[in-house]
Every structure is written in C-alpha cells, then in structure tokens.
Specification:
284 residues, alpha/beta, Rossmann fold, 7 strands, globular, AAA_dom
C-alpha cells in the first residue's frame, strides 16, 4: 500500500478537492483505496458520504487498535472499492501544534494494522487529507506517509508556503520517517489566461524546479458541481470534468512513479540491489 499525505499550509486552496480527485483517479486504476479525513472540517467525509460509524479517526488516533480502526472505516457513496476513515470535529482537540505531542505515530500504527491484516482485498492506496496547518494531525500524517503532495494556488504567497511545507517534510524525514519523499508541488485553480497565475507558476518553478508538477488543476465549475452532488469528478458528465479527471489521472501516475523512485533510492542507500517491478527480493 502506498500512502500519500495531501497537505497545504493555507486554508481554501482546494486541498480536499485534490485529495478527492486523486481518490477518483484511484478508482480507475487500483482495486481498493482508502481516504483518511484528518481535517476537522470533515469536507472529505461529507463528500464521500459514508454511513455512520461506531468510531471515528479521532478515536483511532487515541487508540489504534483493530476494533477501533474497523469501527471508523466505512464504504464511500462513490464505490465499495473506496473506503473512508471517517473524520470528525473532535480531531481539532488533537491538533496541538507542539512537536513533542504524544502518540504522534498512532496513525502509522493504524495503517500498519490495515496493511498487515486487511479486511477483504488489501488497499493499494491510502490518501491522507491533512488540515491546513503543521500541528499534530499533519505531522502524524507525514510520519505515516510514503510521499507528500503539497497543494498551492498561483498567488504571491505560494513560494513562501511551499518552502515551509517542504522544510517540514524534510524535518519529518530526518527525524521520524526516512522513507518519506515529496511527491511534488501541485498548483490548483489555475486560470490559464491569467498573466498573474502564469507568473506565479514560473516563480514556483524557479524556486523548486522539477518538484512543481508539470500539469496544474484548472479552475472549473465542474469541481464544485461534482462535490455538491457527492459524485467523483470522473463520473461527472461535462467537458470541464473530463479535463480535470484526465489531469488527476496524471497526478496519480506521478505520485506512484515517485513511490517507485523512492524505493529504488532507498535500496541503493541501503546497499541492496535495485529490483524490477514484481521481482521478488530473493530473486537471482
């Protein structure tokens, strides 16, 4: 299972939209996926519209035991192949900003339980929708993740926000999660004909180079329409939705490529031979 944390350091940039777009693309590519809603606003949970659960992600972060984890997961309204680790407002009580917060690795433990003993078909992808801050919830997600996707808008504050987020990713990688890699910086709500937007994207590319995704999410009404109908962008029938769905397909493909590249780098750093996809570890 590949776990990607979707984060931003500023509210209102469409982070949850991106997390849901990746989930929508995953339904076209993977057998089973999971969205963990770490944002106390609960927008991902509301859009995926799962049935009521006995527990929530707030309970899982306090007690990452199998009965609690299982009680917090429900199928989404989009597909029985996309589950939700249900969020709640109580998560805000756990989002203390200090780096010494207790039980910071409980989310990683919970996802590890799901990977070791899957209930049915294993998840191939877990998407962690983080709150727009660097408190305990986002740090817990980065400790649990294989990769981190930073979402931003093409504004004058984009470079500074991206720099802070990438520094946080590097800090977590060095201190707690050596496998963590940045999947990239994704620009959302791009207006192609806006000179300001094009200028800010160029500014991001000059600062972060290839980390900036080669494709951006265009600003289209179809996103709000699909979310309002609790429908995936791939199932919303409009030209704008089709354009965005194709973009999310490319974003997911890049995330999964970054996972393979990260595993190859880790193998090289450990002195292990680099394996082809599907090749067992003990193959000669």
């Amino acid at each position: 299972m590949h776990t990607v944390a979707v984060l931003s350091l500023k509210g209102g940039v469409g982070k949850t939209t991106v997390a849901l777009g990746i989930a929508s693309a995953a339904l076209r590519r993977t057998n089973r996926a999971l969205v963990a809603d770490l944002d106390p606003q609960g927008n991902a949970t509301a859009t995926l519209d799962p049935p009521d659960t006995e527990t929530t992600l707030a309970d899982v972060l306090e007690t990452p035991r199998r009965p609690v984890i299982g009680g917090a997961i429900a199928p989404s309204a989009w597909s029985d192949r996309l589950d939700v680790l249900v969020g709640s407002e109580e998560l805000e009580l756990l989002n203390d900003p200090g780096p010494e917060s207790r039980r910071m690795d409980n989310l990683a433990r919970a996802l590890g339980e799901l990977e070791r003993e899957p209930d049915g078909a294993p998840y191939e992808l877990a998407i962690l929708d983080c709150p727009p801050s660097l408190g305990r919830l986002t740090r817990s997600a980065l400790i649990a993740a294989d990769s981190a996707l930073l979402v931003t808008e093409p504004t004058m504050y984009a470079v500074a926000g991206a720099q802070r987020a990438l520094e946080a990713i590097d800090s977590i990688r060095l201190e707690a999660n050596p496998r963590l890699r940045p999947a990239g910086v994704l620009v959302n709500r791009l207006r192609v004909r806006s000179y300001e937007h094009q200028f800010r994207i160029q500014e991001l590319r000059e600062s972060f180079g290839r980390l900036v995704m080669p494709t951006a999410i265009p600003d289209r009404l179809a996103v709000q329409q699909a979310q309002g109908a609790c429908t995936s962008i791939h199932d919303w029938n409009s030209p704008g939705a089709q354009e965005i769905a194709l973009t999310f397909n490319m974003v997911l493909a890049k995330i999964l490529r970054s996972d393979r590249a990260g595993r190859h780098r880790a193998a090289n750093e450990a002195g292990e031979p680099v394996r082809a996809a599907g090749q067992p570890r003990n193959a000669g």
